[in-house]
Amino acid sequence: MNRPAALVNKKFRSTGIGVVQEKAMVALLALCALLTIGITVGIIVMLIGESWHFIQSKYVSLSGFLTGTEWTALQSKDIEKAQFGIWPLLSGTLRVTVIAMLIALPCGLITAIYLSEFASSRVRAILKPTLEVIAGIPTVVLGYFAVLVVSPSLQFFSGGGFDTFNATSAGIAVGILCLPMVSSLSEDALHAVPRALREGAYGLGCTPFETSIKVVVPAALSGIISAFLLAFSRAIGETMVVALAAGTRATFTADPREQSQTMTGFIVEMIKSENEYGTVQYFSLYAVAFTLFVITFGMTLVGQLIRRRYQEVYS
Amino acid sequence: MATATSSSVDDGSPPPESGYPGGGFAVSTDNSSRRKLYSRLFYLLCVLISGLSVVVLGVLLVSIGWQGHSRLTWDLLQNSHSELNPDSAGMWPSIVGSIFICGICAASALPLGIGTAIFLEEFKPNSKPLRMLHSFIQLNISNLAGVPSIVYGLLGLSLFVFMFNVFGRIQVNESSGTELFGVNHYYQVLSLAGGGHTVLIPQEEEAEKTIKIDAPTQAVDRDGQKFELAIWDPASGEPKPSDPKVRERTVRKGQGGGSYSETKWYYLRLPFGKSFLAAGLTLSLVILPIVIIASQEALRGVAPSLREASFGLGSTKWQTVRHVSLPAAMPGIMTGAILAMGRAIGEAAPILVVLGAAVAKNSGPQNLMDNVVTMPVLIFNWAGRQQAAYQELAAAAIIVLLAVLLLMNSAAIYLRQKMRVG
What we know:
Chain A has 315 residues and is mostly helical. Chain A contains 13 helices and no strands. In chain B, the strands form 2 sheets. Chain B has a 4-stranded antiparallel beta sheet with strand order 2-1-7-3, with no helix packed on it. In chain B, helix 1 crosses helix 2 and helix 10 packs antiparallel against helix 13. Chain B: It is a multi-pass membrane protein.
């Protein structure tokens, strides 16, 4: 009997082995995916476990940690006198974050509107890569930029009203950092709004301004808000800029011209100091990190949920 | 004033794609001219603010270039950090360190990330509980992407550096933890030959840091050959041996020796301690969500008809993935991977947590458990100092770092062009 050459030369494999191999492969891939859950669990277990050592310490009380307005973990020589109240660090973080958001959110959104509604392809060809380059700049570089340029120019224009290290210059640098992220995510959201909506608005006699602000932006609002929340959590967790430019004194004020240590800034200072594993100061690091994690995780989770729940799907 | 605005609206050509009807047919009331004025102003605002980012980037590059250009010399690339002599300090060890850490990071994060993306995109389950698990994993990955990198640094500190203290704590300047392979412990004893010539004696008891030689013992030479170590006792009145061969294998009676360990490049111990292995693995946690999301997007972009054709030919799911989806998605995955590596090279916070802020290191890593310095950590250290010399060095190092990043980004663009299917 003449069989085709392909069938003669082919090495047939038992289907049974194939099925086993297939299952093994799928199991391996599933393991990779489950590992990501493992990372989350690992973070939570690690943070809670080590913060527990902090809360257990006789120098610390949970209510003092949550409500205290003095943080002198590294400054005080005597552990008896050290104050562990999270609010100075929280207020420092908030000052930097609010300044960053005042810059990143409006500018990012307007840049996104410009890119998606107005810009000609020639302008896009310049603006898009510029934003991508800014997004790719390492944060330590932006921190150096804040110390080298932003802070001296603030001092120059205010006639010395700012500290050398201050919340404003750190906030401006963090704002520059977050701007590309806000603009690219918002632009995606604006881009998803169908053309027919815009044409309808123009047909009713709207100007480009009214079309963008009253029609397109509301239609893309869920995407824009989740982009804002993402930028917010990114700004809260930003480390190298504040470690370089915000200062190392934890202050509980609203004055953006003063030094302000943020939560991440404290973690870096603690790591640089010589406190060994096991001291209260060392464990306070984990309590601060836990607070940071809860805030950022909550932010991103809410952003995700808003996006999933309220996103308008245009088919 | 009204005429001025309306003329400015008329001759200003609105963007063609916006479908703006043009000024010709608009009814010229006060209201409409005011609205047109707003629109015009808004357009100007858009241009101004968008231009701002270009200006900021320009100011950043120019100011750093201005500050650092005088230090862009071969010294910078060849020398290492120097505390006493900032004028000749350089960043060579940090360049090597960054390369090693990114190598570890790529080797661990890319397979894991791509595997996860394949699982999430290609093996979507049908049953309800599995579907919920699937979307939970998806949500979890999106959230992991928002976790601050310094928290990953702390996770790496607990997980890789200390391994939750299961294997004992790593001590400074001591061999500790559970050592697996690649290390030999010796006592180092001065032989009679003088001139710093030493003999190595294998260390049996690690807790004992020094020994005193009173009787002939077994020793090894630098090639690992065993030999009998002879003793020469000055008190006995015997003359010192004159043959150099013998003198190399003879030591004075009562001589002490300190412990010394010799490591091979593959030296491995648990926990990893402050090693570049731990730092690389920590960085891979940081970029894992980025790799997963980018790979997922690339896989989503593969046309379903390609997969259907493969199934139609009788391929199994994995065969389809292996031979159809994955090659088609490869350009996107590679681009995402390179961008993630760019992020990893610039990341300082987690490395600072895992390895500490010390930068005094003259060379790249000697073994898997060796400490390293990376470029961002060195820049952070230099930028935080008061002296102008270090400030300039920081700027010059930033120029080098940005050049490396630019190179990687161009590689990403090149790959995207080159590997595009169809």
